[in-house]
Specification:
12 helices, elongated, 266 residues, Rossmann fold, ProC C-terminal domain-like fold, 2 domains, alpha/beta, 55% helix
């Protein structure tokens, strides 16, 4: 199987690394294309895969799978400039917000998998969802599940769900990072050294997540278990309720989902 990455940035590096280090496909050949020398060098160093400065007819014409790992702003020009492809090529797109219909308008009636990954993919803890252009394309689903599953968890969803996925898991890491920053700054205002405050916030979040992963209880059960009536946690949660914390989270997720939909129309 010949796999060609168009774009050699961090996400492409993670995916290619998952394929090569996990030896996911027998006798596979991987290549990448990126105009940036820095990106090519970083990609090659991390994966051992050769990165080329341009998508030649030989590279594109030989590819069984083409992975579009480019910014959505340059996707149209980049994809339209690609040389002819195999009739049965599988195109895997991680271009945020670009729907399958638009990809088909650029590529023709090829098999497409649209993927919404997130940055924890870089450390093998990704939460990725993918949608198929052809619902019965079992081979495409198997490819996506195998590659994404090597770098975390992966779920197949209808394409109509991908804007919501983007708002939750795609943008989600930034929400958690922002919450860590807020906890750090709150601890510092209470007199803790900033470095200790951040370390406590990070370890607390990691420990709470691990309890969920180990099925120690549902989020609601675990929240209730740590909240004594009239205690410190109850006092804090009362503030969250008065400020409509759940409503704020719903609002920010809607903003992200709406923006994802707008990008798809642009």
């Amino acid at each position: 199987m010949n796999i060609l990455f168009i774009g050699a940035g961090k996400m492409a590096t993670a995916l290619a690394g998952g394929i090569t280090h996990g030896k996911l496909f027998p006798n596979d050949r991987l290549d990448a294309v990126d105009p940036s020398p820095e990106a090519r060098n970083a990609f090659q160093t991390a994966t051992g895969v050769t990165a080329h400065p341009e998508a030649t007819a030989e590279l594109v014409g030989a590819a069984d799978v083409i992975v579009l790992a480019i910014k959505p702003q340059v996707a149209s020009a980049t994809v339209s400039a690609l040389p002819p492809r195999k009739a049965d090529v599988l195109v895997v797109s991680i271009c945020a917000g670009i729907p399958i219909a638009k990809l088909r308008s650029w590529l023709g009636d090829v098999r497409i998998v649209r993927v919404m990954p997130n940055t924890p993919l870089l450390v093998g803890k990704g939460a990725s969802c993918y949608a198929l252009s052809r619902a019965d394309d079992a081979a495409a689903a198997a490819f996506a599940s195998k590659v994404l599953g090597s770098l975390g968890e992966a779920w197949q969803v209808p394409e109509t769900s991908l804007d919501a996925v983007t708002a939750l898991s795609g943008s989600g890491p930034a929400y958690f990072f922002a919450f860590i920053e807020a906890l750090r700054d709150g601890g510092a205002k209470l007199g803790l050294p900033t470095e200790l405050s951040e370390a406590l916030a990070v370890q607390t979040m990691a420990g709470a997540v691990e309890m969920l992963l180990q099925k120690k209880g549902t989020p609601s059960e675990l929240r209730i278990a740590v909240t004594s009536k009239g205690g410190t946690t109850a006092a804090a949660l009362d503030v969250m309720a008065r400020r409509d914390f759940n409503g704020l989270v719903a609002e920010l997720m809607k903003a992200a989902a709406d923006r994802s939909a707008e990008l798809g129309k642009g």
